[in-house]
Amino acid sequence: MEDPAVVGCITVEWLNSQAMTTKKVLYKSGMMKILRNDIRELFIEISQDKMQSTKLKLKDINVHKKFMAEGKASISFKNEKCTVFINNSPPSSLMMFLKTIYIKLTKDQEDNKSITKEQMHKKLREHLLSEKCSQFDEISPITNAELDRAKKQAISKSTLTTPSPGSKKRRLIDAKQSDNPKAPKQLYAPKVKEENTEKSFMANPNEIAQLERLNDEQNAILQACMSGRNVFFTGSAGTGKSFLLRKIISTFPPQGLTICASTGVAACLIGGVTLHSFAGIGAGDHSLKRSIEMARRPAISQAYRRCKILIIDEISMVDADFFDLIEAVAREVRGNDKPFGGIQLILCGDFFQLPPVIKRQQGNAFEGMNQPQRKRFCFQAKQWQNCINASFELRKIYRQSDPKFVEILNSIRIGRVTPEMTEKLLSTGRQKIEFNGIIATQLCSHTQDADSINKSRLASLKTPEKMFEATDSDSYLTNTLDSQLPVPHKLTLKEGCQVMLLKNVNLSNGLVNGARGVIKKFSEGFPVVRFKNNVEYTAKPEKWTVKLANGTVLQRKQVPLKLAYCISIHKSQGLTLDCVEMSLSKVFEAGQAYVALSRAQSMDSLRILDFDAKQIWADPQVLVFYKSFRRQIMDMPVMIPLGGQRKKQDVKKIVSGLKIAKSIMNKPLMTIN
């Protein structure tokens, strides 16, 4: 269990009876810990170097956590008449801190049930009359017994959250008669009977354990990121790159952290913006001079200067020239000659998957450069080696558990197909993989084909159609939202059509992004979907938020569904499909067949209609890169240079044996086995 202390910008405000602030203390770089005194009472301590600490007793508190994912929360102390505001805290640390408070208070409540009031008063009296100074110690780590107890209390409370009609009516009458304003939504109030309090706080008690579920190779990458290194990590499909990236994001304070991806949909999945949006230089069609002028616009230049850590997902779909252009612009705008202007880089992607799409117009910075001269992949960028000083590869696969299927995928990933593999894949064409009325989702190589198939299948249904139009925060930027979000502005559905869920709604019930089902009916105007696992869900509008590089926040409310008869291979990247059908004779890009096949969980959930081994290939430049990349990692288990651990002669032998450039040897490379 990680340390439950939390850091951030912490403000403590004391209020009088008129709710006016009488005192305020600001800890710009504060730390908050949970302590116990010598009579086992819980306190929080807020401290900062060269400042007097503040201790507050954890009793009669309300915790407000609406913006916890943004590193913000507040704790109101009824007895002290004060509120603690937490800002710019790493979301994962903040969540752990608040849940630790809940678990420890739950334990104390259970323990105190066996103690009478007289015993409590006697204990308190002895403590007050004692001449000893109060002793404070940090709380002990959470035990399994404490965690189980908190889970049971959360579950028992959640069963009581559906009030009777009479109680609803009484509350309605009380609300009408009361002149007091409605209290804000509370997360934990030990002494206040607040419905759904524990349920909202411990809605998924297993999240505490999930925060710890990094394997050794993932944890090594996280530690490298936290140490300030510029990190690139890769791995085949299903190795947990997205899971690890979300963990990394939650570990850093939100201020100074910029999250990007090469595509709008990928950016939406990790709560970021597109790299082009952050860069502010268009598609990279302009000269360096013009690009710098564009980036000096106030909102864009401010984004560059504020950025301390830049995370880029799907780096494999960013081309080398655009990477070099952004790097040069960042140095110029920030006035810093270090690589990327001193911004820490965390890059993630698999170059064996879909390559960059290069579209350049005449008259741009690359005019006169023919296609063979163009540097397509990001690792070919001039500044790649200067920018990256720690590289990793994830190897453990989580999506597929069948070793034979994993072996086939790994072989296809590098463009190698044996006759036995071809026979095995073609044999899936006879499989019946439909289940519970849900047919296999087709994957095709072109987006236009996917749209055409979906429209055709929808039109074939005889049931009435119902159109859902999204509510956008800015109607003038509807096209921007369309490019950034997986949900369309207008969605047409029918009873009986097959759909895919586009948002994680309920993990424990399997209602996750990518889950597929059939619309059984419309209830109160909203589609009721029965999923493959027989769970029914009424799809009501969900909110998507997009934050542009200039700070503008856009929102869209739309039913979180889309037609799922067919999806293009490009749009399937990152999804896990429980039942998928594909035709692989018309793939036109290196890595396209691999991306399509790796969407399946197993051979049993896969049906291949046609397969041509000649259409399976990996880009030769990617093969060369990974060969060198892996050789570096495997042959240099000790980071170089760290001094004193290897003689210079040994290092020279390794360099000459591998024929690796000296510039590469100056980078610390890690082994993950």
3D structure, described in words:
It contains 23 helices and 28 strands. Strands 1, 2, 3, 4, 5, 6, 7 and 8 form an eight-stranded antiparallel β-sheet that branches. A six-stranded parallel β-sheet has the order 11-10-12-13-9-14, sandwiched between helices. Strand 6 and strand 7 form a beta hairpin. DNA-dependent ATPase and 5'-3' DNA helicase required for the maintenance of both mitochondrial and nuclear genome stability.
- Uncertain regions: pLDDT < 50 for 5+ in a row? 158-211, 361-373, 636-673
Main beta-sheet annotation = 8 strands, antiparallel
Round the Cα radius of gyration to an integer and report it. 28 Å
The percent range for helix content is 25-40%
Tell me the strand percentage band.
15-25%
User: What is the structural class?
Assistant: alpha/beta
Task: Enumerate how many helices there are, as a single number.
Answer: 23
Instruction: Kindly state the number of beta strands.
Output: 28
General shape: globular
Q: Termini distance? A: 24 Å
Mean pLDDT: 80
